[in-house]
Automatic annotation (TrEMBL):
It comes from the Eukaryota. InterPro entries: NAD(P)-bd_dom_sf. It comes from Kwoniella pini CBS 10737. This is NmrA-like domain-containing protein.
Amino acid sequence: MIKYFPNYLYSPAVKQAFGLIDEAINHQVKYFAYTSGNRGGEKSSWGNETPVPHSRTKHHIERYLSEQINNSKTPTKWTIFSGTMFYENLEPTFSIKVFMSAYKDTLGSHKICQ
């Protein structure tokens, strides 16, 4: 079953996701949608493993999803949603205002959405 990314075999998120992907393929699920996180856009995300543990885990799950489905004869199609922020980041609390100010300072003129 899990033959890629041996350093992450002990992560419950990876084990669960790989198992779910395998079962979706085995049962010929029509469409598989996965929620991930943005790591630099479409071109950068596939090669950007990132040093952030949670995002690195997502990267390995995305790669497994794409490789398993693309290399099988399953009719399953897939989509990965790569959000850049959460709805909770829009709450009018002081901590969120500090976060959003830091976000704005970091992004400068770059857009978070296309």
